[in-house]
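User: Fold this; tokens only.

Assistant: Input:
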Amino acid sequence: MSEKKRLPAFLLCFLFGAFGIHRFYVGKIGTGILQLITLGGLGIWAIIDLILIIIGSFTDKNGNKLEAWT
């Protein structure tokens, strides 16, 4: 289990998903830069990440799932 929580990742993705800020938060710097350059894959990549965060499948840079909402 990651030390990062789902609520901040969700809020960052919801508000700034096109810029990949949520990926920087979980330590995925490389894909964060790619999302920043492509504006979240024209929004599609950001929506997919948002869904993954909601269902609990989004992981940090080490492949650990994010902690619960609280």
